[in-house]
């Protein structure tokens, strides 16, 4: 029930925004929704007192949850829903379209959905509408693209959870089982899940896979289902002897496969999901493992994250595949929050969880005062520092902050106060629409600040929700390299920011990176693999990533030649 209630609380928050309600109230509901989603117990089993023990859940939210448990509805939410015309909530999910203008579109044009809106723009019905110039029309059109892409593909964590559950269910019934496709390559969003299994008899696997699901297609070698959440998944069953060739084929990408097949053809071979064959005689050469398939083609095994036909095949032919960074290489997390700002767990809980993860060091980086909603003060920050200094047996704690990069590139505090932090992450949290030149200047100024160590979630995109800011990446990368400022690879599956294409370009410019969870709860500390996967897609090695370094080397980097 937790997911369901969290979704309702989020909707309540969104509707409160549309009706112009109190921002602090909105923030409370969002925070409660986050805690409930990550809460280990089923909240349907909890009484009012136990509900209130959940971070962010006060009397009024607890009462709403209890009401939902008993009646299946929340009266206050239904009232809010009744106040807002149909479709307006969906319209506000289009990046660039605020509540006020969504209401206006509904009232004046009768637009009731994003599809309606797209049609209205195409038909020129927004022309001449008060407050909708050509430029904002363009922005809304591109916002609709972002929104639609977000709806057609799912985020990595959703896909990974679903796929892992499928593999766990099918493993006992098969000789081998794994997920392949874009998920194995850590692509940032997933179109459908591809499960591969090896078995002599496919029938029991197909039956288990289809049970209780909507079956879209089925045959002896392949079954396709649609899960309750709307995600499609393919199961393919192959003989164990063909495992390697099938895994290679279904991992993709298609572009990688096409290029590999060309290499086979040049060697008078034929490659398919069944194996590598002699072209003339159809004699099977190899098919059991991926390593054998690549080796017979004269290539080193290629990590799935690199298989996009972007130079990995040449590198494999020349024995130059980089030793990619892995989860085990990470010695610490450099961007995390506590309940002093918008986290849901206390400092003690977060630090205890960091210790359980086996980290050597861990930075606490709560929000700085310019993000008004977080209500940070100098006193609170200094009091937290005392707490941090008093804690921390067993791992090195760094006291830091997440600064806000203002429109002119300045940050929340002056040098004197900044000097007291062990590490400063600095992020853009406002004025996302600045023109490119101004935005670039803004980032460069932040990099030149001798106390700014890491640029947090650099493009500020939210996948399917907010487009990236416009910035001259080449100039930003040069500024980072020159000033010893790292770029973050934010591991939240909603962000994955810096994206992998830019990571690779930044690395070529000499930039260093921090793979950070940006955790706002204990469970989000576990998001690191999404960041590592993204770093791998950017071809990074441990040496490129400052939080794989020993503490002394990290500290030297953080001093920034001051
Ligand atoms: P997705 O599902 O859009 O996130 O991306 P993928 O890469 O998982 O693509 P999908 O599910 O259509 O196919 C899985 C893999 O199967 C793909 O990565 C490579 C292989 N594959 C699919 N279609 C073709 C094709 O036409 N040619 C070749 N060579 N391989 C293909
Ligand atoms: Ca797929
Ligand atoms: Ca597929
Ligand atoms: Zn941030």
Mean pLDDT: 94
Name the CATH superfamily assignment of the largest domain: Metal-dependent hydrolases
Shape, principal axes of CA atoms: globular
According to DSSP, the number of beta strands is 17
The top level CATH class name of the largest domain: Alpha Beta
Distance between the termini: 52 Å
Helical percentage: 40-55%
Number of helices: 24
Estimate the strand proportion: 5-15%
- At the fold tier of CATH, the topology name of the largest domain is TIM Barrel
- Which architecture name of the largest domain does CATH use? Alpha-Beta Barrel
Write up what this structure looks like.
The structure is a single chain. With 562 residues, the protein is an alpha/beta fold. The chain folds into four domains: 2-152, DNA polymerase beta, N-terminal domain-like (DNA polymerase, domain 1), CATH 1.10.150.110; 154-238, Beta Polymerase, domain 2 (2-Layer Sandwich), CATH 3.30.460.10; 262-321, Beta Polymerase, domain 3; 327-558, Metal-dependent hydrolases (TIM Barrel, Alpha-Beta Barrel), CATH 3.20.20.140. Helices cover 43% and strands 14% of the residues. It contains 24 helices and 17 strands. The protein has a seven-stranded parallel sheet with strand order 11-12-13-14-15-16-17. It has a five-stranded mixed sheet with strand order 2-4-7-6-5, sandwiched between helices. It has a three-stranded antiparallel sheet with strand order 8-9-10. The longest helix is centred in the N-terminal third of the chain and has 19 residues, at 134-152. 43% of the residues are buried. The model has no long low-confidence stretch (mean pLDDT 94). The site of one calcium ion has 5 residues, from helix 11.
